[in-house]
Each structure stands twice: as C-alpha cells, then as structure tokens.
Amino acid sequence: xGDADVRLQDGQPCFTITPKEAARGPAIRLQSVSINDAxxxxxxxxxxxxxxxxxxxxxxxxxCVPYGQTPEGATAKPAVAPDxxxxxxxxxxxxxxxxxxxxxxRGYLGKFCLMADGADGTNGRKLVQVKADxxxxxxxxxx
Length: 143
Prior knowledge:
With 143 residues, the protein is mainly β. The protein has helices at 19-24, 135-139, and strands spanning 2-9, 12-17, 29-37, 44-50, 65-66, 75-77, 89-97, 107-117, 124-130. The protein is built from 2 helices and 9 strands; from the N terminus they run ββαβββββββα. The chain is globular. The model has no long low-confidence stretch (mean pLDDT 85).
C-alpha cells in the first residue's frame, strides 16, 4: 500500500498520489476512490466512485479527484456525496492499476480530517493530513 495525498481544492478534499509514489510509478492508472469514516466502529463507507475501466486516468500529483465529483462515465455511491463533518477522521483508498506489472502496489491510503478555520473571518475549514504514526491515525480522532 502506497501513500495517498489529500489537499483542499475549492473547499473540498481532493485526492491524488504523492510525488514519491509518482516517481516510482509514472503511469499509475486510477480505478476507484473510496472514502470511509475512520471515526466510527466499524469504519463506515461514506462515498466511493468507480471509474470507467476503458478511460482510466493516469495519476499525477499535479491533478486530483475532488470529493463528491463523479468523472464522466464513472459510477458513484451514493450518487450525491454527503457533506464531510468537521473533526472526524476520514480515510481515502485509491485503487489503481500500476504502470509496471512487477509492482505489487495496487492502492494508496491516506487519512485526513477537516477542522474549522475562522482565521480569515469566514468560518471556513482547513484540511489536516493525519500522519500514519500518530495517535489520531490509530484512534480515529482529529485533534
């Protein structure tokens, strides 16, 4: 399992691979994205999208798949993604087809949470990446 990268784009989390993973496999093809709520036991599925297998996009750190947006020809469940809640830990699974058939990496995992960000006076939100070796990662709690 490789590392997924999550960033905030137009107010929504956006999912991709890290530059390190891209250098290792320059033609990784994205097959599906799954978002789960890691703050619940058992972990609950929030939203997933399965891409058209005839039109798989090559992954790059320069591009990302925005939460809640279904690419043309893809299938999403639920069709309309629910709003993500502040303070909850979410995990993203990027299921892929590697560029090199000898590469056993078939997926990428990342965890994140959204926190209130009133610094600019808009009561917006900021994205916090949850590190793999942190208590937040194992406990599913955003601090």
